[in-house]
Amino acid sequence: MVEQTLFFLVPVSSPQNFLDCVARAAEKRCHMQDVVSRAGAFARNTWAQRRTSSLKPTPPSIHHAARRAFSATRPNAKDHHFDTLKFVQRLQQEGFTEEQSRAMMVVLSDVIEESIQNLTRTMVLREDQEKATYTQKVDFAKLRSELLSADSTESSLTRASHERLSNELTKLNNRLRDEVQRTQASVRLDLNLEKGRIREEANSQDLKIKETETRIEQESAALRERLEAVKFSTLQWLMGVCTGTAAIILGVWRLLM
């Protein structure tokens, strides 16, 4: 799986391309003799150290445990990620010795292994990615269900609040209508009472006016009778004065005659 991922990510660094590069680099063999000799010395020293450490005597218990572990478990073979035998043979064909070719193969294998490890540090397995994707889908579905439940709860609460406000507004409208009707009835009653009082006052004023007119007529008739009586007495007085004056004039005329 790591080889497929590496081949998919960096197809230029495939073993065949690298072998071609090494073949072209063989032309500069003179410049690489020092490097190859150092690599050979490093490989020899490493091999000698491993050999000496393997030749050290071990206690029987450790040896027995190691044998049991060796017999119980299968040792992990190192994966070189390319054909090492073909690489060594190609280097030998280019003029390198067998020891130098193996040393270069070991160094190249270590470099490739380290490069693969550096690349795989930032990678994830497909199972982990699928697990993370499934977890995200589950979390998203859970979040969606929570949002839907919260939305339905908010909708029900909003609907209940709307109905409650509608009922309160209806009650308030009915109360205002009753108050307006009661006020109109009270005002209408007051107006009717005021009209009746004004009508009664008008009737009483009419009666007073009629009584005043009757009294004036009576006073006028009495005054008229009194004037007639004064006029009659005045006429009687004038007739008596005229008669007396005429009698005096006749008496004087007789005396003079």
From TrEMBL:
InterPro entries: CCDC90-like (IPR024461). It is found in: Membrane; Mitochondrion. Keywords: Coiled coil, Membrane, Mitochondrion, Transit peptide, Transmembrane, Transmembrane helix. GO terms for biological process: mitochondrial respiratory chain complex IV assembly. It comes from the Eukaryota. Pfam families: CCDC90-like. It comes from Cercospora zeae-maydis SCOH1-5. Belongs to the CCDC90 family. The chain crosses the membrane at residues 235-256. This is DUF1640 domain-containing protein. Its main location: membrane. It is a single-pass membrane protein. The keyword Coiled coil applies. Residues 159-186 form a coiled coil. One of its GO terms (cellular component) is mitochondrion.
